[in-house]
Amino acid sequence: MSMPTPRPPHGTAPSATTGTTPGAVAGGGNRSAGPRADGTPADGLPFPPGFVWGAATSAYQIEGAAKEDGRGESIWDTFSHTPGRTRNGDTGDVAADHYHRYAEDLDLMRDLGLHSYRFSISWPRVQADGTGAPNQRGLDFYRRLVDGLRERGIAPMATLYHWDLPQALQDGGGWESRDVAQRFADYAEIVFRALGDRVPVWLTVNEPKTVVQNGYLEGHHAPGRQDPDAAYLVAHHLHLAHGLAVAAHRATGTGRIGPALNLHPCYPADDSPEAARAARLYDGYENRLYLDPILTGRYPQDVLDDLGPGSRLARGIRDGDLATISAPVDLLAVQYYTPYYVTADGTTTPRWPTSQAPWQQIYPDGMYDILTRVSRDYGPIPLTVTENGLPSPDTLGADGTVDDTGRITFLRDHLAAVHRAVAAGVPLESYHVWSLLDNFEWDAGYDERWGLVYVDYQTQRRVLKRSAHWYRQVIAANGI
Ligand code: FCB
């Protein structure tokens, strides 16, 4: 088995490139100051009428209220409370206190003019142990949130699983256990019955690859394992969970449903045939292992061959699984952060300056490449970008402002790439910034601030960063 070295996302391994001021690259400068006075886009890049502008968050990263209203423990409670697992020992116990401040946050979203808000539902709030009767108080929170969005004219987009597996299910084997996929479908069905009439877009599993790589290969995300053979079986069970949830949705829900995949363009680092071959296999592990089963009903043969016939993945695939996994979806959610440059020996080498996150090279053209590639290779499926953004060490100035110019440059450059992809015919319907609010960035804790909105964690005060004001103008002008 010659697996490529997995990426080091979410704040672990330092990259060979030194970090720069975010945004000081890739066509940077401060070109875009928002729309002109007449409301037309400053850079002359209008988006199609009806294009949907949004922002994203996830439950464990913002909600806090870890022990309230019957919420059970998740693997992220366990992981973050284990000494040494997160930076500064940070946990999501309080986070941005969104559970209590959601009404204020809804008003912020309205003030920004968001059309769509992507959030996730915490499984252990709905089923404390991951099975059995639903916890009504947990469901009620999401009902209030969804109704509050709709009252403000913002479309809810709900992710069912953003990594907070109930700890009780982990104790029974977690995603290594095939049974958890069925438990997930049962949970999904509860949520569809409670909210299905008022949520137009559902996303199943957020970034299965990150669970596989960070949770089971590198071990710097919950549940903190380093077991390659288990990792790819986990991939299969996450796919199965996705497929079973799609089936439950068809039986109970309204609205549309699809997967949320983080995709990475994988380029050969040089012109050699060896690098080209290595980049192709790397792409198998980074992209096709997730796209192919869901969208074509097959695992990529090069990855299966590389893992070998005795792998737990190969042995874990049962008759009918791929039909379940590839049940038609209504849309594909793409999350783009960084490209990879793959060398002949199958490792990666950085090419561009990074953001504050050492794993993130800033390369806006990668957005264009991944969107056009997905459209080309997987057919005319509607796409949405559900995450894109960068962290920066933002501070609240004495004048009460947060000057995150680098984020504006980053977003502007990536939106220009999105614009080119749309102009090239990619059926992209919406774009969501990661993130609405500063939040708990997993093992990087609160050091990395990814929000459009600054959160003062001492007081929980929210302050719109300069990028939030800019984004409001982009939305108003429907373009950059
Ligand atoms: C994505 C995650 C999201 C956040 C961003 C920075 O991989 O889905 O929760 O951590 O990265």
Give the key terms:
binds beta-D-fucopyranose, TIM Barrel, 480 residues, single chain, alpha/beta, 12% strand, 16 helices, globular
What this model shows, in words?
- The protein has 480 residues and is an alpha/beta fold.
- It has a single domain, classed as Alpha-Beta Barrel (TIM Barrel).
- 39% of the residues lie in helices and 12% in strands.
- The protein contains 16 helices and twelve strands.
- Strand 11 and strand 12 form a beta hairpin.
- Helix 8 runs antiparallel to helix 9 and helix 14 runs parallel beside helix 15.
- The radius of gyration is 21 Å and the shape is globular.
- The site of beta-D-fucopyranose has 11 residues, from loops.
- Beta-D-fucopyranose binds next to loops.
Topology:
Layout: E1 52-56, H1 59-62, H2 75-80, H3 98-112, E2 116-120, H4 123-126, H5 136-151, E3 155-161, H6 167-171, H7 179-195, E4 201-206, H8 208-218, H9 228-252, E5 256-262, E6 266-268, H10 273-296, H11 301-307, H12 312-316, H13 321-325, E7 332-335, E8 340-342, H14 365-378, E9 383-387, H15 405-423, E10 428-434, E11 453-456, E12 461-464, H16 466-477
Parallel strand pairs: 1-2, 1-10, 2-3, 3-4, 4-5, 5-7, 6-8, 7-9, 9-10
Antiparallel strand pairs: 11-12
Helix pairs in contact: 3-5, 7-9, 8-9, 14-15
The structure holds beta-D-fucopyranose (FCB).
Residues 58, 61, 206-207, 210, 262, 387, 434, 441-442, 450 line the site of beta-D-fucopyranose (FCB).
